[in-house]
Design goal:
By secondary structure, the protein is of the alpha/beta class. Among the domains are: 249-299; 326-533, P-loop containing nucleotide triphosphate hydrolases (Rossmann fold, 3-Layer(aba) Sandwich); 564-636, Orthogonal Bundle (Helix Hairpins). The chain is built from 19 helices and 18 strands. It has helices spanning 42-50, 83-88, 92-110, 115-134, 140-150, 167-180, 197-208, 221-227, 246-281, 287-299, 366-373, 408-413, 421-430, 447-460, 477-489, 501-507, 526-549, 564-596, 604-636; strands at residues 4-13, 16-26, 31-35, 57-62, 68-71, 185-189, 213-217, 230-235, 238-243, 326-337, 340-351, 355-360, 381-386, 392-395, 465-469, 493-497, 510-515, 518-523. The chain has a six-stranded mixed sheet with strand order 5-6-7-3-8-9, sandwiched between helices. A six-stranded mixed sheet has the order 14-15-16-12-17-18, sandwiched between helices. A hairpin with a 2-residue loop joins β17 and β18.
């Protein structure tokens, strides 16, 4: 039986139909990508699955006892727990077993002198210990730390109270809790939206191996390619299913549309031929034949004409003046806040027509650099020089250029008051604002709508140097494709910070890479950079293996590594702990054997001594596992 089944489901908001005649299901272990333009009902679909909304027509069946985990865009976490403790709270079953173990230990101590009661309580303690071990009780701390680090939390973040985190951090923590939990079905609404590239790629690997069924809403095409094995697309109130990841699904969709177009054309030709025959013969000797064919046409099931083109934002950057050859020059630029240095001694020159992307971890200074280039911040040292005739158009991810109280029409009009209303409306229409939409207040628009409006204002200025900060945030796939096409035709110079790797591959041919060691320049696409880094990692791994094999033949005078001694000590500590764990496990096995001897319980003192030794050994083993987790995690880092 499917985890979730929808049968002829429909949903209305007032008189507006959002979903109609949806029949669909999700099976155990399947990873499905849910896509569709903004406003097609993706969030509504998720809320119908969870039961937060009820269908107006049709039925929804859920497997009995199903556990659904739902990641929304607004993570309401107000706990005063630390980040680590909040993550650990996901292991409800393990924590309950741990509590029961502590109670069993206390009960054992109280049962001293009563051989029969001690035997009973030892049996319970043994069963709880085995269940605790099977549930991952000795590794759950390590698992929680691994997931938190993968999602971008640093070790120093783990003791922070949850209620001081930013909205994005809370969403990442909520995501981590869901990944660590035991949900049968995970509903993830844009899980990559608050992640940098490194964390997104980590999440891709984690999700691809996750045993639960997953329904993920995402506009990140690479993410969908690497995490799902089928695509469900909401379109024209209905839902269509396609096999494979995003790229494969779109290829299947294209073939289906071509086949539908061929069938439609053939049917239209057939209809036209029949109608022509009817027109010529309806009043003649072949009247009966004409009436028969008319009756046949009336019963004919018409093939719907396929929608091969969708209304998307038509982005045209128009005419612009030409700048000088050197558009931007950074000479020794540094930026610090107090004791924290974002980057230092950055030297970079961007020439006319260069298309450069900024990538790196969150918080490394990408947005800060863009703000300094457009004059909203000043460098701590160094100089920033713009070339002759450079006219900047800046798109900031907060869309600060928009005024919330204005209507959409007046907001765009304010950028160029000399235009007449018809011209403004035409431009808004190209950005998918039509009818009464143009009278909406800006503050009432969705994030994607605000993004399209900000881009429209940007285009009116006809800049020759576009500086874009996360321009694809909140844009659906069709709008992203439209932006990519517009930028492909854009004749000016482009500098863009983005976490959307597919967008970067389409829009830029060079990168500024922000890393802990500094900012480096890469000439090539993002995919080429990723392939280079992957090959570099493989080469380093092979080199390490060769170094281990050639260790006795190492030359003297090798470069001194100040952490070499520390790593060696950590490895020795890990080896010692593993040996201690094996020894302690052998001791526990021996004590279990003693407790199983019938003669043990003829002596009350022996029962108490062996039982207490067994409980003490189990506690010591737990402590050894915790120490081992900490040391091995330090080695991994």
């Amino acid at each position: 039986m499917a985890l979730i089944s929808l049968h002829k489901v429909a949903k209305y908001y007032g008189a507006l139909c959002v979903l109609k005649d949806i029949s669909w299901g999700i099976d155990s272990g399947h990873h499905v990508g849910l896509i569709g333009s903004n406003g097609t009902g993706k969030t509504t679909m998720l809320q119908l699955i969870t039961g937060d909304l009820s269908p107006d027509e049709g039925e929804i069946s859920r497997r009995r006892g199903i556990n659904i985990g739902y990641l929304t865009q607004d993570a309401h976490l107000t706990s005063t727990n630390s980040v680590l403790d909040e993550a650990l709270s996901s292991f409800e079953r393990i924590l309950e077993l741990e509590r029961q173990l502590r109670e069993a230990e206390t009960a054992l101590e109280k049962a001293k002198g009563d051989a029969e009661e001690t035997e009973r309580r030892l049996g319970l303690y043994g069963r709880l210990t085995e269940e605790f071990e099977r549930a991952g009780g000795y590794t759950y701390h390590h698992r929680a730390r691994t997931v938190l680090h993968g999602l971008g939390f640093k070790e120093e973040d783990l003791p922070l109270p949850v209620n001081v985190l930013s909205g994005g951090q809370k969403t990442r923590l909520r995501l981590g809790k869901l990944l660590l939990g035991d949900a049968d079905l995970l509903l993830l609404d844009e899980p990559e939206s608050h992640l940098d590239v490194a964390a997104t790629e980590w999440l891709e690997e984690y999700i691809s191996d996750h045993p639960s069924a997953i329904l993920v809403v995402s506009h990140d095409r690479y993410f969908l390619d690497r995490t799902v094995n089928s695509i469900a697309e909401l379109e024209d109130l209905g839902l269509k299913n396609y096999p494979g990841n995003y790229t494969r699904a779109m290829a299947v969709k294209s073939e289906r549309l071509k086949a539908q177009q061929r069938s439609y054309d053939q049917q239209q030709a057939f209809i036209k031929e029949r109608e022509e025959f009817i027109r010529r013969t309806i009043e003649g000797v072949k009247t009966k034949q004409a009436q028969g064919r008319r009756s046949h046409l009336a019963r004919l099931e018409r093939i719907e004409k396929p929608r091969t083109r969708h209304r998307t934002a038509s982005l045209d950057f128009g005419a612009m003046k030409r700048s000088g050859r050197d558009v931007l020059h950074l000479d020794g630029v540094s930026k610090s806040y107090g004791m924290r240095t974002l980057f230092a001694e950055l030297h970079f020159t961007q020439h006319l027509g260069d298309r450069v992307g900024l990538i790196g971890y969150n918080g490394v200074g990408k947005t800060t650099l863009l703000r300094m280039i457009v004059g909203q911040e000043t460098p701590s040292s160094g100089t920033i020089h713009l070339g002759t005739g450079v006219d900047i158009g800046y798109y900031d991810q907060e869309r600060a250029s928009l005024t919330g109280e204005r209507s959409v029409l007046n907001e765009l009009w304010s950028a160029k008051p000399s235009m007449n209303e018809g011209t403004v409306r035409n431009l808004l229409g190209r950005f998918l604002f039509s009818g009464d939409d143009v009278f909406k207040q800006v503050e009432m628009l969705s994030g994607g709508e605000q993004g399209r409006l900000a881009l429209a204002k940007l285009i009116l200025g006809e800049p020759n140097f576009l500086v874009l900060d996360e321009p694809t945030n909140h844009l659906d796939i069709l709008s992203r494709q439209a932006l990519e096409q517009a930028l492909a035709d854009y004749p000016g110079t482009l500098l863009v910070a983005s976490h959307d790797r597919y967008f970067l591959d389409q829009a830029v041919n060079a990168l500024l890479v922000f890393e802990a060691e500094g900012v480096s320049h890469w000439q090539g696409t993002y995919s080429e950079y990723r392939a280079f880094k992957e090959e570099q990692r493989r080469s380093e791994a092979k080199e390490k293996e060769r170094a281990k094999e050639d260790k006795p033949r190492q030359k003297t005078g090798a470069t001194y590594d100040p952490r070499k001694k520390e790593r060696k000590e950590q490895r020795m500590m890990a080896d010692a702990l593993e040996a201690a764990i094996r020894k302690k496990e052998a001791e526990i096995a021996r004590l279990e054997g003693d407790l199983g001897e019938e003669g043990t319980f003829t002596d009350h003192e022996t029962v108490a001594r062996v039982g207490n030794a067994y409980v003490r050994a189990r506690r010591e083993l737990e402590d050894l596992y915790v120490e081992w987790e900490v040391v091995t995690m330090e080695l991994e880092e």
